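Any chance you could type out some protein's one-letter sequence along with its backbone structure tokens so I can compare the two?
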Amino acid sequence: MVLGITGKYCAGKSAVSEVLSAWGWHIIDVDRLGHHALIEKRDEVLQRFGRELDDGAGGIDRKRLGAIVFRNRTALRYLERIVHPSMVAMVDSRLAELGVSGAPGGAGGAGSDAPGGAGAAGSDQTAADSAPGAPGAPAEPGAPAGGGAPGAPAGGDPPEPDSTADHAAAGVDAAGAPAGPRVAINAALLYPMGLAERCDRVAWVHAGFFARFRRARRRDGIGLLEMLRREHAQKRIRPQFYRVDVDIVTVTNTGERATLERRLHEIIAG
């Protein structure tokens, strides 16, 4: 099973990935792949955006590049044309390594005008969450602390019998997912990059604006004006703008891990 994870800035995509990783899922963090793509395409980025972006250590000054593309849609589109094809190729390579073949989804995303599915009109997530301006891509605030497997009995009740064998016989894993590779693709630009086509199901992670703003202030130290700018720039990352035949489910991230785990159980088993 391949599950896509997407949503707006600071909605809690990393919180979802954290839970799935604890359950043994393979996580493909596309935002982090953007860092590798910048290094791979370093010369092209410097030629396009200026040699002053050279960080002196063989890479790109992502903060300075982010300052350019955050405020210039044309510059953002050029950057996406440079790095997105490499990022998509990296995802496909990882899926192949994990034994996932084919693209379970359907037709390509509307409005994708650059190679490899790049070209999300007005989206700032390549700059904000992957290549240029990411502050080390920490786990998103709102990702609740603590681990542990879901469904653990509370109040001292005795644990349920181990049902691993029963799950295997039924062709599902302990979380209810079909047996086989269990992979999650975490990408703010899942649809604009054409990656939803690789997924069996997509989880749209939702949190209210002010909850996301509080997380953004704690994580990135941004103010309200910058938050509003990013909110405006993300208008077209929502699934309804793209023609992809894949189930979409909403995951509301309240910051409570137990609630998040229950919802993910429902999605995987469904």
The radius of gyration is 19 Å.
